[in-house]
Amino acid sequence: MSILSKQLAARIEQSEVDYMTDRMMAIRERQGNPEHIELRSFGGATAFASKRMPWPQFNTVKGFGPEELPLLPDIRSYYEGLGCRPQFEISPAKATPELLKALSEQGFMPGGFHASFYATPEAAPMNLPGNIRIRRLERDEMTVYARIHCLGFGMNESGIAPIAANNEVLLGRPGWHFYMGLVDEIPAAVAVMFVHSGTASLTLAATLPEYRSRGLQSALLRRRMQEAAMNSCQLVVSQAAYLSPSHRNMERAGMKLAYTRLSMVLA
Question: Of the candidates 196, 203, 215, which has an alpha carbon nearest to the alpha carbon of residue 253?
Answer without folding.
Answer: 215
